[in-house]
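Page 47, continued from p. 46.
Same chain as before, 154 aa.
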Amino acid sequence: MHLENVENDKIYILEEIYKSNISYFRLENPDICINTQYIVEDLRMEDNNISNYLIKLDDTYVGFVQVMLVNPNDNCTWIGLLLIHSDYQNFGLGTNAVNIVLNNYSKKGYKIFRVGVLLNNAKVNKFWKCLNFNYVENKISSIGKEVEVLEFVL
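Result:
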């Protein structure tokens, strides 16, 4: 498994991954419409502080991960979004992808990684805690939803 930078010609792949996880996005916004425009805005590709990666296993794109190098509010690195296509969930691919991110960024000197988990998303909360991400605090996210902030320190 490896990570590939998201390029404009791969947005259609990302759209399929996003749509396969529609139940997650509906936790944030029940009326959400996932389309190319939404994804391009979500990627924030013009922001040099954000890195977007497709997760590729052999010759198949199985997911997506977004990393904010340094959050200006806390100076930590954030995994802003991790999505595994619904067809490939529960095979350990998310765990492998997180380990790749942690390994790659720790080599660059990043040591503190955070995620924000919606309070009503018990499955995702359990996932991150199984990876030894620990509770820091509850906060209101940029979209106005309360999240549990979890942290992993190398």
